[in-house]
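Subject: design request, 301 residues
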């Protein structure tokens, strides 16, 4: 694959990201997690009681400086079970309707975007029609959803987060076997970008997520974080979701509620490697980390 075929670089050497016709290039960005579930791995991200609670969490994230709010209505923690399209939409639609209005207000200050964490083509189509800007697909089109997702993306001008996983959440940790995890994930990204392009979907609409914790053991997660610079050579923005995950517990011995310091350290490391988007549970701390790293590295925050 020729890098020039799939990438557009800004003057600062960063890949830009086309989302709804806008070219995002003022990186890094903070993507805030809001889970419309009662079983996501970090209790602090759950907002399942009612739409008003979820909207309050979304507004707090925007107030604290989040660039993207990522709504997820199905837990994809290791061992979790899927939910139906009907149930996923039942959880999403009331919150998304309210969030579209709130984001319109906050866009008067700076660009803000709505992402929905889903791998189901029907759900993706409906949330895009309501006003979501980005489809965050943990499956990377590997859950038997390839043709449907390609069709949805071809019909839209949304942004797309392509994530690598070893399998569905129920069994993915049992499938964490690699000869060379970095090369295998890199090859997956290259093949997927070519597939998208062959279906008329501009790769400039794609951000890449190595899928930390999704069918990976500690050694795989560490290798994929160390390889951020290598993945950036693909010419697409990188999104890493490392916040409070179990690998941090393995390194520090801390439970999920006490993993914020480790998360901050991991975010600083990734930002110093040029990662464009960090997906976080703790927005204020992430924004401060971004500012400090920018000051120390001489880059604009």
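Subject: RE: design request

Done. Sequence follows.
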């Amino acid at each position: 694959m020729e890098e020039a075929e799939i990438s557009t670089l800004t003057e600062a050497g960063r890949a830009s990201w086309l989302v709804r016709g806008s070219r995002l290039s003022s990186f890094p960005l903070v993507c805030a997690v809001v889970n419309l579930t009662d079983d996501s791995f970090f209790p602090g991200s759950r907002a399942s009681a009612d739409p008003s609670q979820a909207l309050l969490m979304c507004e707090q994230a925007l107030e604290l400086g989040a660039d993207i709010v990522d709504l997820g209505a199905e837990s994809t923690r290791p061992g979790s079970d899927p939910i139906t399209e009907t149930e996923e939409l039942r959880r999403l639609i009331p919150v998304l309707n309210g969030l579209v209005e709130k984001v319109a207000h906050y866009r008067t200050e700076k660009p803000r975007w709505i992402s929905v964490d889903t791998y189901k083509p029907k759900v993706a189509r409906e949330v895009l029609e309501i006003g979501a800007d980005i489809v965050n697909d943990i499956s990377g089109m590997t859950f038997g959803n390839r043709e449907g997702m390609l069709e949805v993306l071809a019909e839209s001008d949304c942004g797309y987060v392509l994530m690598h996983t070893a399998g569905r959440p129920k069994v993915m940790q049992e499938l964490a076997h690699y000869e060379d995890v970095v090369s295998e994930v890199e090859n997956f990204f290259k093949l997927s970008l070519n597939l998208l392009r062959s279906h008329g979907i501009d790769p400039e609409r794609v951000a890449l997520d190595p899928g930390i914790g999704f069918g990976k053991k500690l050694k795989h997660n560490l290798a994929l974080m160390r390889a951020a610079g290598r993945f950036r050579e693909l010419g697409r923005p990188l999104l890493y979701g490392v916040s409070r995950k179990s690998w941090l517990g393995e390194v520090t011995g801390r439970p999920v509620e006490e993993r914020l310091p480790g998360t901050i350290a991991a975010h600083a490391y990734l930002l110093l490697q040029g990662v464009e988007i960090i997906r976080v549970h703790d927005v204020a701390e992430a924004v401060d980390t971004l500012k400090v790293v920018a000051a120390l590295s001489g880059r604009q925050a």
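Residues 3-297 form a domain with the TIM Barrel fold (CATH 3.20.20.20).
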